[in-house]
Amino acid sequence: MIPMGTTATRWMTLRYALALTLIALGTLAGFIMTERVIGQHERMLEIVNVSGRQRMLSQRTALLVEQLKTATDPTTRVDLSRRLESTTDLFEAAHRRLNGRARPDEGAPLAPPPQDLFRDGPDPLDVMVAEHVAALRRVIAAAAAGQPPDPAEADHITAQALGPLLDRLEEMVALYQEEGEAGFHTLHRLGLAALLVTLLILVAEALAIFRPMTRQVRRQFTEILRMAETIERANATLEQQVRERTAELHAAKTVAEQAHRAKSRFLAHASHDLQQPLQAIGMFTGMLERQPQSGKAAVLLSDLKAAQRSMRDLLTAILDISKLESGVVTPKPAEMLLSPLFAQLEAEFAGQAEAKGLRLRAVPTNAVVRSDPALLERIVRNLIANAIRYTETGGVLVGCRTRGGRLWIEVHDTGRGIAEPDRRRIFEEFVQLDRPDRDRSEGIGLGLAIVDRLARLLDHPLTLRSTEGRGTVFAVGVPLAG
Questions:
Q1: CA 476 to CA 452: how far, in whole Å?
Q2: CA 321 to centroid of chain Cα atoms
Q3: Residue 398 maps to which CATH number?
Q4: What is the pLDDT of residue 381?
Q5: Does residue 201 share a domain with residue 84?
Q6: Does 252 map to a domain?
Q7: Portion of the chain with pLDDT greater than 90, in percent
């Protein structure tokens, strides 16, 4: 058997899940490192851009101050003061982004800044920028009033902007670049480490998980192939046994059918010989009836006639079914009136129905049909006999109606009805409904079987409608004449 659900299989599945988890974590770590490197690179580019702009703005402020110092026209001074104010605002905003104190409308801060450069040391950059901006504001205020800037202060601004302040700004850019490159290299090393760990996990998986799993799968496939071969051999053996058994059953069926046909042919051809003793008994019974009888003898004679009638009906039914099975019955269709048949059967069964307290009525008709008169008579006779036998109260009605291009001869009774599971079974041979009031001396369950065989032989459809507790209707469809 293939091991399924064993401890080894569960442990292998657990290791496989753990390996996949580690690979996922390594991949996630590599992704995070890549994103950090990209972010670091973008931050570095932004710092270089802002710091370069700040250096340019510092030099521009020096240039504008020099122009203010030499300008003589008040209007020119006002215009230069506005340009200097705008440049100073941009310079100050760029510095706030670099030192991590940017306002919401100035863009995202580029902090954390190097603290020893902006706020610590002998010449903190924040202090130098603040003094430079304050001096620029004073020059702007004087120029806005149409006055020239203080020459000493203008020279100091120019000297600071192009000297120590510019040097400190370049030092800041270099420091930012150094820190960015160090972070970039660190992230790069971490990314390589994550890649190396992932590769090591893959190698470990190949050695500790996939190779054992491959061996396990190979063993399972080998077992499956072995089981398939075993099943194929079993199937071949089973097919041979089935063929042999089928041949035996076919031979037995052939023998049984031959014996059945021989029996049917014997009964069909020996019917005259079998009926002769009953005819002799009937003749002797008739002779006894013409002799004077005492009361007791009359009762015995009546019982004898009833037994004789039952024996005759039984033998007739057996001979009929045997003839039908042996195929010696050949229909001889002819046009016939139904009224004589209905009148004959009504007169024949009137006494039997009256003895049970039932009403029997055949509705007169002028219909002419095409069928075998003898076989159709036997069908209707058996249906009436069956209806009387299984009806306790009420009556039996025989009539006909035209429907679907056929004349349907219907036999209605007010018996107990037939349950749904029994409606197909009653047409089988030797089947009688098990009812406590049934007279077991009347028939052996061949009446409806003969009706079904005769109807199929004549190609007359046979139908059954029944309601339990209300009665049953048997109908046989006969072609109309002409």
A1: 10
A2: 52
A3: 3.30.565.10
A4: 92
A5: yes
A6: no
A7: 22
